[in-house]
Automatic annotation (TrEMBL), chains A, B:
PANTHER family: SORTING NEXIN, SORTING NEXIN-9
Extent of the signal sequence: none
Pfam family, one: SH3_1
Gene source species: Oncorhynchus mykiss
Listed SUPFAM superfamilies: PX domain (SSF64268), SH3-domain (SSF50044)
Biological processes annotated in GO: cleavage furrow formation; endocytosis; endosomal transport; intracellular protein transport; mitotic cytokinesis; plasma membrane tubulation
Subcellular location: Cytoplasmic vesicle membrane
GO MF, one annotated term: phosphatidylinositol binding
Superkingdom to which the source organism belongs: Eukaryota
Domain (PX) ranges: 84-194
Domain SH3: 1-61
The protein's name in its UniProt record: Sorting nexin 9a
Keywords tagged on the record: Cytoplasmic vesicle, Membrane, Protein transport, SH3 domain, Transport
């Protein structure tokens, strides 16, 4: 159940189960998934019926957790009971202009319809631009994985891009405000080219973007204490900056380690392996008796080192990869916060000057009231966003650390296993 | 029981249990350890008694193994039943010239007398020069560990030098010809400064050096087929050259790996550890609930990496060290063979030209016979030396490989152990 603002007058046609609404009226959304461009709504008099979805601006509800000393985290977004998710898979090469231009199309399947839709990278990019324009003031929208022109059809690259698009889509799906937006739903569930084109055009003409997005948010809660919010905001600002440094540091050492493992270290173990095997071959030519145990041991040691060389070189893709991908995602996400926080701070500053501006006759008392209400919504949504970030962060890093440590243990067991084979032979 | 050549006439004093001998006579040594400069000998008539040791040149016996298809290795040195060994330990700083000059004295204790004697590095060097001069034509005498002037009293350096002197002494002790020589025995068993000085002077005046040493070797066997010996020699020459390459290669990659482990790799693991711990600290400041498991895991991962960093840095000293030391010793030893083999080849060439030289009247038929006998002894001793080298090589490398692989397994178990701690905490 979410409230919606009526943005145009609409007169019901009798007998069609429609509801007459007037601009400025607030209605309650009963069913947003009626289809065919209709929403089922109820007005304040208890009458219900269908209204064209373009005539309504559905608010996003914030939910404020009850205060209990241990669990209190402040405002959180209203999360859907079954979270949206999607699978990006099956990249296929397509071409147009008689084969002069070729591209890769990815299949995107949401868990709601279970019906795959196709999208090229540039569609993802279009979606990113829309989300950034619409939500950028309130919600950090991380960049898409880098564009890269050369070697675009190289298998490895396509797989990597797909993985990253998957990661990006998952993150967007997990956000209750973003995932519930028309443009995001269009991207995931359009039924044919016509619906896609129409939806695109409508999304591009969407006027509820930037700071306007706050007007669609209804915190259902009293106004907040600005000083407390400012302190929280300051804390969060410092936290994201420090986490940004920490993440970049980890990415940096991770990259260096990755390169060392796949480069010099791999070659070095190979060389050690070769040196042992070479000595074994030389010893075999001695013509002396009683040499077999020794040359077997040398050969085994040599082979073990060659195995270690391979294991070491393949290891980063097994453990570091996921750790790096997650940190890369967070690096992108953290890069968005300064802007979001900046918008927030500027708004608080404005409210602070409200009294002066009223005194100077620059704004009316009513304007000041509206501003205060707006800033309160912004504060709620920033806090909800902070909490969203933290809970996601803990979830993501828990997962990545668990996988990482498991892979590490597997690694050392593999290496040791190899060693043991060497030693048994011995 | 070894034969000895009488080199000066000696007339026994009656009632003193002495034996009269004439220059050129061959006697059998009954007891070389009578002491006081005497040897108990028996002449061909069965009479026995004491002869001054300076009047006799005791031969070294070669022993020829019986031919059995699987075990036949050809001539070997006559090895003592209880092999000589010694311990180099307890380096002490001494000084002379009123403290203006200081030096390190090592305690050397042979397993025969169990009585420690003191020697400075320059005494070892003196011994090396004597052994090289006396046996260099027949037996490869590896160089002493490098001299190094700067930081000579640095603890680490002294320990390293002691270890290497120990290795060198062990190798010399293991050689039945070298270890049985007067000069080597003097070095290990002198009782006082006077005995040491006298022995030194005598050793420096020893005329049985260089090719002359072959005259003290009695193969107790028929002359050898020169073509067969030449082939064996060629094979051994190629073997030592190839082993030299192999050993140098292993030393090279070993050194690179050592440097990487103690340098960049150590630092890298440290940095990874710090990055994890840093992220953990940042997360701890979030003020969000339910963070503890994650920050514990991050801290544990960070600490594990710091432990790995230390383990990795300390590893070379545990496993590579002994492998490198042994290969370094062999590098030195292998460097001596070209000379030894060169002497051998030149001698064979001379015998080849024997007939021509007799025809040209340059040498007599008797000279040629003596030469042939001499070359036969050289061949026997080279083969004995080859076999000595091979059996020592197999023994040394078996030992070093076993230790190396054991340490390697211990290493990976330690690292994995660390990982497991991290994972249990998790």
């Amino acid at each position: 159940v979410a409230p919606a603002q009526v943005i145009y007058d609409f007169s019901a046609e009798p007998g069609n189960n429609e509801l007459t609404v007037r601009e400025g009226e607030t209605v309650t959304v009963l069913n947003q998934n009626v289809g065919g461009g209709w929403i089922e709504a109820q007005n304040s008099r208890g009458e219900s019926g269908l209204v064209p979805e373009d005539y309504l601006q559905v608010s996003v509800c914030l939910f404020i957790t009850d205060y209990t000393p241990k669990q209190y985290v402040g405002p959180v977004w209203l999360y859907p009971q079954s979270p949206l998710d999607c699978v990006v898979a099956d990249p296929k090469k397509g071409s147009k202009m008689y084969g002069l231009k070729s591209y890769i199309e990815y299949q995107v399947t949401p868990n709601t319809t279970n019906r795959p839709v196709n999208h090229r990278y540039k569609h993802f990019d279009w979606l990113y631009e829309r989300l950034l324009e619409k939500f950028g003031s309130a919600i950090p929208i991380p960049s898409l994985p880098d564009k890269q022109v050369t070697g675009r059809f190289e298998e490895e690259f396509i797989k990597m891009r797909m993985e990253r698009l998957q990661g990006w889509m998952c993150r967007m799906c997990r956000h209750p405000v973003v995932s519930n937006s028309d443009v995001f739903q269009l991207f995931l569930t359009y039924r044919d080219e016509k619906e896609w084109k129409t939806g695109k055009r409508r999304a591009e003409k969407d006027e509820c973007v930037g700071p306007m997005v706050f007007s669609t948010i209804d915190p259902e809660a009293p106004e907040l204490d600005i000083i407390e919010v400012e302190q929280k905001c300051e804390l969060f600002s410092r936290f994201t900056k420090e986490m940004d440094d920490g993440v970049k540091d980890l990415l940096n050492v991770g990259n260096i380690h990755w390169k060392r493992c796949t480069g010099p270290l791999r070659k070095e173990y190979q060389k050690i392996g070769k040196a042992f095997q070479n000595l074994s071959s030389v010893f075999n030519t001695s013509g002396y008796t009683g040499e077999a145990t020794l040359t077997d041991a040398l050969t085994a040691a040599g082979k073990t080192y060659e195995e270690i060389s391979q294991i070491v070189a393949e290891q980063p893709r097994k453990d570091l990869h996921f750790l790096m991908e997650t940190n890369n995602e967070y690096k992108g996400l953290l890069g968005c916060f300064p802007d979001t926080i900046g918008v927030h701070k500027a708004a608080i500053e404005k409210v602070r000057e409200g009294d002066k501006m009223v005194a100077a006759g620059k704004i009316t008392t009513q304007d000041k009231g509206t501003m205060a209400k707006r800033i309160s919504i912004m504060c709620y949504s920033l806090q909800a966003e902070m909490n969203h970030f933290h809970s996601n962060r803990i979830y993501d890093y828990n997962r990545v650390m668990q996988l990482y440590l498991e892979e590490q243990i597997r690694f050392y067991e593999t290496v040791r296993g190899g060693k043991r084979v060497g030693s048994i032979k011995w």
